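hey so i finally got around to running the thing on that chain from the lab meeting. sorry it took forever, my laptop kept dying and i had to restart like 3 times. anyway pasting the input first so we r on the same page abt which one it is
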Amino acid sequence: MPEGPETKRMADDISRTVKQKEISSLKFLHPSLINLNSKKGILVDDVTSAGKSIIIRLNTGQSIVTHNQLYGKWTINYLTTKIKHNRQLRIEIVSGKKVARLWSATDIVLINSKDEKKHHYLKNLGPDILCSSTVEETVFERLSSKSYMSRNLGGLLLNQHFIAGLGNYLRSEILFFSGLMPGLRPKDLNYDQLRQLSNSIKNVSVRAYKYKGNTIDKNDFQARFGNVDNFRLIRHMVFARKNQPCFNCGDIIEKIVQNSRRLYFCKTCQS
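ok and heres what got predicted. didnt touch it at all, straight out
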């Protein structure tokens, strides 16, 4: 499932393709959107993301809220690009030489834009980690609150009510950069550890957005560990690196299953 950084990048791509541009063709094939097909002059006023959802705001005063879940996928292609899969088309928006399409998603809702905060998913989201208003202090305050301070970090970092947009690969990477094991709780940490965790939650997420899912900054990595052959193949410090040596200490990366999701860590660098 795409996490916050991937969802925001896709929202950016859709926005560049169709936002406030002339629309030459529209198709709305999901049952919740069928009535839009009869409306004339539809334009896209705005495209944004919230957690793992994409919101398309129309000039009709309505918003299309989509959540990819496991099978949904947005694509941006040239009109001349041949489709080489059998996914079911849900939305198609053509502008100029490009087309934005949503495939296979089932969680698609059309609501009045003024009612977005009442949407079944959006209303339960915490602050979006990639929103400019969500700063390190925001995260620190939530970690320190009674609502979350007694929850283990492995589960908390998947909780969209805590911070929206976090997910599985971010969880492993955030814990590594914080030097913490997933079984710890915020209340087990001292002030400096809470600050470091808050910093990692924000900055690892921003790096993943900036570097297309990579949680490692190339310049920082090479400054610490020297030049590495095929750096483009190195995406994460621990995630999906089971039985490989830790870049930091050389110990072997381990994998466990927590909250029904795979989690990776270095038992030497994390405590």
